[in-house]
Amino acid sequence: MTNQRGAIELAGLTKSYDGQTNVVQGVNLKIPNGAYCCFLGPSGCGKTTILRMIAGHEDPSDGEILIGGDNVVGLAPAERGTAMMFQSYALFPHLSVRDNIAFALRVRGQGKAERYRVADAMIEKVRLTELRDRLPGQLSGGQQQRVALARAAVTEPRVLLLDEPLSALDEQLRIQMRSELRRMQRELGVTFVHVTHSQLEAIALADMVVVMEKGRIKQAGPARDVYAAPRDRYVAEFLGGQNVFSGRVGAVEGDVIRLDSAELKSVIVPLGAAHVAAGDRIDVAVRRDDINLHRPGAPLAAGASSLASRVMGVEYQGNFVKVMLDAVAGDEFVVYVPERAFFEDPLSVGDVVMAAWAAERSRLLA
Length: 366
Hints:
Layout: E1 8-16, E2 22-31, E3 36-40, H1 47-55, E4 62-67, E5 70-71, E6 82-85, H2 97-107, H3 112-125, H4 141-153, E7 159-163, H5 171-188, E8 191-196, H6 199-205, E9 208-213, E10 216-222, H7 223-228, H8 233-239, E11 242-253, E12 256-259, E13 268-270, E14 281-287, E15 292-294, E16 305-316, E17 320-328, E18 331-338, H9 339-344, E19 352-357, E20 363-365
Parallel strand pairs: 3-8, 3-9, 6-7, 7-8
Antiparallel strand pairs: 1-2, 1-4, 4-5, 9-10, 11-12, 11-14, 12-13, 14-20, 15-19, 16-17, 16-19, 17-18
Helix pairs in contact: 2-3, 2-4, 3-4, 4-5
């Protein structure tokens, strides 16, 4: 089963520190071999605890962790075929780049010539050949991160675990290192499990995004599916890019729902496979970049959903302009207007507009 050597399965994984409160609650998940998987969630949601249990730095209270089909619970970290890259990098300040990367091979008893040969090949992959004799203190933050990544990967693990590896970097370097991490993962062909609280980071990097809340998985799947098709309000709001609002069902007409409040009377929501009835309260999501803004009296497309609103704020974001509206009482409502389109007819705070979108772009949340 060499083609599944890095496949991970978490089965009923539970962790409690006091015997009563579960910080991880019966998690079930399969991560394919060679995937780049990001665990995403706020502080305290259990994502780092799961990473540490996969690594062997924490023991589960219950459940199994399978890597390549083998249950690794109870095995020491060195016996699992995993390697972990820590947030702090934890480089040895007195060792050169070359010796930092070769250290794990030295511990394994490899001779100097062989470990340097392997380390030099890894140094070339992370593009640090010219810096191999420098000490960590002589490197930039991004270069130190590459050393830490190379040191973790040099042992050829089945799974590489990354604990918020980009959090210490500035914005420009984070963007650069995202590309570096993705390139390395593809070259190595190793399963990466990456913990982050950054939605943008997870979406940019991952084949598979796992959104967590209070020790449970709320949604897991391909990055685009989780972003574009959130299942519930929590995921939609946490991932961002969506307007989420609540309303009461006025009527179910065939395969669409019409809402009953005065402000939402022109909103149509596809029913899909859901079962709802008149009077039910529902949550609805619509992507911010699916909405167009129109001046009063401008014609709208037939069958479009629409909301009358007033501009409450305008923020220039570079390639788009963020327009904040008072469209729905109690819920934030934002539209991302392409920069060129916005400045053809700029809006100001206080302007009355109609927010409109194709009815099929609304999504009924669980």
